[in-house]
Design goal:
Elements (H helix, E strand, L loop, with lengths): L1 H19 L5 H10 L7 H6 L1 H11 L6 H37 L3 E2 L1 H10 L5 E8 L13 E6 L4 E6 L12 E10 L2 H4 L5 H11 L3 E10 L8 H26 L1
Parallel strand pairs: 1-2, 4-6
Antiparallel strand pairs: 2-3, 2-5, 3-4, 5-6
GO biological process, one term: cytochrome complex assembly
Keywords: Cytochrome c-type biogenesis, Heme, Iron, Membrane, Metal-binding, Transmembrane, Transmembrane helix
Subcellular location: Membrane
Length: 253
């Protein structure tokens, strides 16, 4: 009886120790795997500790990084950044230059203005300098615009301006008008005026273009005229004188 009782007590103690014993940790399992437990990756162990299995596999097979490919990728991104930045700056500069060029208005004679307009009709804004042709000033009764002719002694161009002319505006004197070259229509050609006026402006009205002025500047002396315009008119004057002299010499001969 005593032996039986001792055996029961021993079995009870062993069962109690088995129930109360703690579950082995990952570190302990790893330690046991290296030292005492070759069956750590048995099916039963994998089911009990899957995270430990996969983390261990990842540590054993680390992903290799291609340093050369990574460097090439960074270099390509850097080059694209530089290219886009350069394109943006270049586009901005082009827009600024085009806008600045559009704002530029050059002093030209009627001959130069028509030549430039024919070469590039999109650039039709000018500061036109020349002499007001005597007898050409006219205010058509059916139009709010004043008309007069500006000449460089070679080319005459009809100018139309809506507004009050400056007090110093005079026929036969220098003038500078700012505006746009436009095609001359039959309606403008047919504006009524005296026979004398028609005769004076016949050359200008027979042309293909007229000048729509937005501003008229005038002064009595030639100092107001831009130097390039004054030089062109003087050159044309000499050319006309030489032609007249040549005709007279031919007639005498």
């Amino acid at each position: 009886m005593a032996a039986r009782t001792s055996t029961l007590r021993l079995a009870s103690r062993l069962l109690h120790r088995t129930i109360l014993s703690p579950t082995p940790s990952i570190s302990s399992l790893h330690h046991q795997h290296h030292h005492h437990n070759p069956n750590i990756f048995s099916p039963t162990s994998l089911l009990r500790n899957p995270q430990f299995f996969f983390s261990t596999a990842a540590r054993r097979n680390p992903k290799k990084v291609d340093i050369g490919a990574r460097a090439r990728q960074l270099q390509t991104r850097r080059l694209w950044t530089y290219a886009l930045t350069f394109a943006g700056v270049a586009g901005f500069v082009i827009l600024v230059l085009n806008n600045f060029q559009d704002q530029l208005v050059f002093y030209v004679t009627p001959s130069d203005a028509l030549e430039k307009y024919r070469a590039n009709p999109s650039r039709n804004k000018f500061r036109l300098g020349g002499l007001v042709l005597e007898g050409s000033v006219h205010h058509p009764p059916s139009s709010p615009e004043m008309e007069f002719v500006v000449t460089d002694l070679i080319t005459d161009i009809l100018v139309r301006y809506q507004g009050s002319l400056p007090d110093l505006f005079r026929e036969g004197h220098s003038v500078v008008v700012e505006g746009f070259v436009k095609p001359l229509t039959d309606e403008i050609r047919a504006v009524g005026m005296s026979e004398k006026g028609k005769e004076v402006t016949a050359k200008a009205r027979s042309g293909e273009y007229y000048f729509a002025a937005t501003e008229v500047l005038a002064k009595h002396d030639e100092k107001y005229m831009p130097p390039e315009v004054a030089a062109a008119i003087e050159k044309n004057k000499k050319k006309i004188d030489e032609e007249v002299e040549g005709k007279e010499a031919a007639a005498v001969a």
